[in-house]
Amino acid sequence: MPRPRRHAPNTSPRAPHWSDRAVCREVDDSSVFFPEDFPKGLVLLVTKEAKAVCARCPVVEACLEAALERREPNGVWGGLDKDERKAFRRRQQKRRRRNDRRREEGGDGAGEAAGAA
Q1: Cα–Cα distance between 112 and 117 in angstroms, integer?
Q2: Predicted TM-score (pTM) of this structure
Q3: Cα Rg, the chain, nearest whole Å
Q4: Amino acid 114: pLDDT
């Protein structure tokens, strides 16, 4: 008698995911989203091509958010290359620190400026 499986087969359909609607899924050559893999002379051209695909994508914001969350080290994700994502993260961190300081000081600083005038 055959031994029963430990786990039932996964026959239930997967819930829709934002990436199912990504335009990049329709691109024949997905390597354009990883321009670092191309010769130096082609990197800017390939990056521009990848960003053009992202520009017409309906889920570009979700893609960028996921890439930032996963800290994607390479490639074009959400319309930004690795250096742009790094700068974006820095700006977000700076903004958070500034907001945290304002909260600790007891407000947004607007009241202090009005009182000093």
Answers
A1: 9
A2: 0.72
A3: 22
A4: 46
